[in-house]
Amino acid sequence: MAGRFTRRLQKELLDLQRSPPTGVKLEDNTTRLDQWRIHLTGADGSLYAGEHFVLRFRFGNNYPMEAPEVVFEGPNIPMHGHIYSNGHICLNVLYNEWSPALSVQSICLSLLSMLSSSPEKSWPPDNDTYVRRAIASPKQTSWAFHDDTV
Amino acid sequence: MPKDIISTQIQAIEDVNNIFQIPPSTARILLQFFGWDKERLVERYYDGDQDRLFEEAHIINPHKLPRQDSNTEHKEMTCEICYVDYPRKDMTGLPCNHRFCRHCWVSYLQSKIMDEGTGEKITCPAHQCPIVADEVTISHLLQGHPEIQARYEFFVAKAFVQGNKLVKWCPAPGCENAVRVNTVEARPVKCKCGHAWCFGCQQPTHEPVHCPTLKAWLKKCADDSETANWISANTKECPRCKTTIEKNGGCNHITCRSLNCKYEFCWSCLGAWEPHGASWYNCSRFDEKDSMQARDQHSRSRVSLERYLHYYNRYHNHEQSQKFEQQLFAKVDKKMEEFQQRGMSWIEVQFLKKAVEVLCLCRQTLKYTYVFGFYLRKNNQAVIFEDNQKDLEMAVETLSQYLEQDMDSATGSASSSSSSSSSSSSSSSSSAATTAQATSNPTVLADIKQRVLDKSQYCESRRKVLLDHVQDGYEQGVWEFDAAGN
Ligand SMILES: [Zn+2]
Ligand SMILES: [Zn+2]
Ligand SMILES: [Zn+2]
Ligand SMILES: [Zn+2]
Ligand SMILES: [Zn+2]
Ligand SMILES: [Zn+2]
Questions:
Q1: What is the pTM of this model?
Q2: Residue ranges of the UBC core domain (chain A) (predicted)?
Q3: Which member of A47, A68, A90, B194 has the lowest number of beta carbons within 10 Å of its beta carbon?
């Protein structure tokens, strides 16, 4: 990563530590700059209220020109129509709609709002086939986005 | 060639500017959006909703640009990509007014152009902003980055070619040129790289056949190649005694191996060999009466396959010969050096190279005459065509023989003695080689030259006669084709 963009990532990290948005918390012992874990808490009034989820962010050399790799991790993967049980997320801003003007914070907020707007808790209809075939990184999947509204 | 393409684009853009009075960058995006069809753009611009037109093309209506407030230009603002503060005037962007620092713009363009390989429709880096970056802005931002700029220009040219029916890429492997024409119909074109091809179908130049016929032929060859190979590789029955005969080598002159029969016949047409004469290439007797009678004994399907093979073999022969063209050029290069060592000037020896060029061109034409002939129904003009074909074929074989064999015997073991005679260009008294005495004689060289010149001019004229005759036939509608080639 070019020096300017390392500084940007450091600023993003600092920002998240100092003034994280509601429901977003950086893991305390974050030491590596290229891989973070972020805890999300489901928003009040949503189907996921009070639930804890862990997101893993990986930043490639081309960040922020290229999107980070973002997946849910750990025992509690949110049951949601655009989230697979292996933690892969079907959200266009993480892939072809990524813009370098987006950030870790904006991704976290999009994910929280995606959870909040969900009318029911269920895996995507193709969950079994996808999880069986899925490659390690969701960035290698070519996503056909089901719809952009949820 | 990318330069020519760009100047063509600039002309189109200027034309649009003169009509609409909009910035060139906007004109370019609009033209690209309409596949460089100026008429369609003008029509759409004047009838209907201009705001919608601009929205669909992902640009801001240049007549409705937001006003710049000069008071805020010195205020600092944060670049949303690198998070660094800059004075507003040092930030830059598209008419959508999303601004980023120049470093980030370059990084963004580099990532799009070099990593993702996109050149057209690079949008503003802001999230969900659909506004397309115009070429002027991009070129400006890429100043000082020639590598990215060159790649970008290549993509722009490529997009232009893809969106334009009058421009096509040269199909030669590794060639990055494009050829532009004024009207869309098929015709032979020549790229600056030397490759001659058909603008209609991008196959190598294929006079006298038309594109659809060639396409049908190539498909047939691909479909039939297995059967054809099987038949070629396998045996035939002697037309007289039915003994099984194997074909040995390339010659069509077959002698039945049965000791009682020893019938001599032509492999291709199954007719008696006698009227074929001494030269294999002389077989154009396929449709002659005796050949037909001989073949009548074979099943109908076998006959049509044989007929196909007859044409295919001719076609294939020339195709094979074309593969040796490079070798022939190399060989003739050496000869030209020799001739110069023997007293001819550089200008005087150019006839050899020209002769090879003529040979290659005639071979190319001949190859496709067999495709034409395969589908052609017999009529009076078809007979004339076949005569022309035969004449050209014989002339080409003679020229080929001059260039590939006779030249060697005329100059003797020239290649081995050339090093000893290279010190002197005059007739050498020190050289003991008898061949050198003959070839250093200027009248022998002049004689060879005259023969090659005469024959290659003859080939050229026969080729022209054949092509003109076919062209006249097309124009007067005398050619009848059989789609099945029967
Ligand atoms: Zn910046
Ligand atoms: Zn924008
Ligand atoms: Zn070319
Ligand atoms: Zn063609
Ligand atoms: Zn026999
Ligand atoms: Zn024959």
A1: 0.55
A2: 4-150
A3: B194
